[in-house]
Amino acid sequence: MKVRNPRTGLYDYEISQLSFETLKIKADTMRHAQKSWQAIGIEQRIKTIQRWKKVLERHLEELTEVLIVDTGRKIETVYEINLVLTAIDQFCDLAQDYFKVEVQTILHNNTYHIEEYSDPFELVGIISTWQFPFQSAMMQAIPALLAGNSVLVKPSEKTPRFVRVLEKTISQIPHFNNLLHFIEGEKEVGEMLCSITDLICFTGSEEKARKVFETSAKHFVPAQLAFGGKGAAIVTETADIESASSAILWGGTFNAGQSLESIERVYVHRNIHSQFLSRLVGKSNLLTLNYPNIEYGQIGPIITEKQATNINEQLADAVKKGAVIVAGAEKCIVQKGSIYCRPTILTNVSHHMRIMREMTFGPILPVKSFLNETQALDFANDSNSTFNCSVFAGKDSEAMKIARRIKSKSITINDVYMGNRFYRNEKSSTNAAETKAENIGTFSFKKFLNHKNLMFKK
Prior knowledge:
Layout: E1 2-4, E2 11-14, H1 20-39, H2 41-58, H3 60-71, H4 75-98, E3 103-108, E4 112-120, E5 123-127, H5 133-146, E6 150-154, H6 162-170, E7 180-182, H7 187-196, E8 199-204, H8 206-218, E9 223-227, E10 231-235, H9 241-253, E11 263-269, H10 273-284, H11 305-320, E12 324-327, E13 333-335, E14 338-340, E15 344-347, E16 364-370, H12 373-381, E17 388-392, H13 396-403, E18 410-413, H14 443-446, E19 449-457
């Protein structure tokens, strides 16, 4: 399979796909290695991960270069790599405390004594996404390894170039390539992982999450699914317009809007709607494309042609149904093979439009006014999948009152989603319709462990 370069439009890279037999042999080898990995204990596992981190740092320039080619952007790549390196230390610190307690008493009375203990799954399969390819893979792989598992990772076939650099670093740690292995391939390889591993962790679109869930279920392999939703922001009448508009613009356009956590809907109280819109448009117009010089400009290219088509179709549908574009353009532009979407602000939008209901993955911010708190909540909750939401208000108490009634995976007060910056916080889902894995706090490890009970009758 040939892979497209998002900055040139050329198909200048090729990946080869492993056969099922070859992958099965590798999986069996990794299962065997996992037993020793689990047995050495958390202290030695942390030391090994830290040694690998030092090797990664020695190859930082090479890793940065290939990730830039994979995604066509530099600012976000540097951010992504630094975030992962910081997170490795945070995961290691957290694991040191978490794995000190091997057995926990959960019931003790005159009749029974019940203890809970945990074992790793042995072989974890990770299918990661293209928006932040390095971060998406590593935020699952590191806690899975620390929990005592061996890990097979299939990054997106749209952004595969960094795999060969990572494999080079892994090979420098003795026997580590039998504990962590990255494989290239298309969806067929992902389907193979669903049949030969003990747990599947998927990050990506809701559509693909459903397919992974169906495939893994056929083989009775449990699946942890993390898929994006139609992120929303609510701006109340008392909100600080200056800070709210800046935060929302960043949340909607960072990485050209190509993030599972992007803000893709904005609801503003009607009494400040005009003023807010004016500031949002003014700031949006100051953002520039990182073309022709990747060192300058805040907006990188749209990574895949399919994604550009989706953006164009959603914008066309919105305009046809009455939306007004007040900043940006009606469709993506092509610059010598690369595809860009200017930061685009829309008004006069409704929930009958695809752009208000379907994932966009582009720097698009539809802005709609609301009359009161009840209507704002109706708008924000009118989505099958709202991964994250932000509430901006003059007082935290006012924002919290609204936040508690939002059906969202994560809610941020007076800022946009921060879960990818802090790893010690716990989050729980308020939307039973969504099944998503988290990389937050101790759940980072819990999801990679089989929990068992020992019951003693006195």
